[in-house]
Design goal:
The protein is built from no helices and 11 strands. The termini are far apart. The strands form 3 sheets. It has a 4-stranded antiparallel beta sheet with strand order 1-2-3-4, with no helix packed on it. It has one domain (15-122): Neuraminidase (6 Propeller). By secondary structure, the chain is mainly beta.
């Protein structure tokens, strides 16, 4: 099998990809640089760590930032707080996805993965 690099984003921790079939867009994160990409383009750079994202039916994105869920308007970059976690500052939201019914599942855990100290939640 031949593997070909098609985009070198120089990401430090690139993950959290989510496909939006409606817009044919692959969204993905560079968690440590606080950046969201849409296909090959930088969409936005945020002020806090982003652990996950998912496209919404209305064209927005739901973001799991360090301790909150955010509704991001893609066109304007306007952010609306949806949910705030009351957790230790050593925890962060990580690994979130939507199911076929539109529920957003996510978990949060500590930065140090020596033991699990978070929760698995859905909205």
């Amino acid at each position: 099998m031949n593997v070909e690099l098609i985009f070198d984003a120089k990401a430090i921790l690139g993950e959290g990809s989510a496909w939006d079939s409606k817009t044919q867009t692959l969204y993905w994160l560079d968690i440590l640089q606080k950046k969201i990409y849409a296909n090959y383009d930088l969409l936005i750079e945020l002020d806090d760590l982003i652990g996950c994202l998912a496209p919404c039916k209305n064209g927005n994105l739901i973001l799991g930032k360090r301790a909150s869920l955010i509704d991001l308007e893609v066109g304007s970059a306007h952010q609306t707080n949806l949910y705030l976690l009351h957790e230790p500052t050593t925890n962060r939201i990580n690994d979130g996805k939507c199911d076929s019914a539109g529920r957003f599942y996510f978990r949060h855990n500590g930065y140090e993965r020596k033991r699990f100290n978070g929760q698995f939640i859905f909205l």
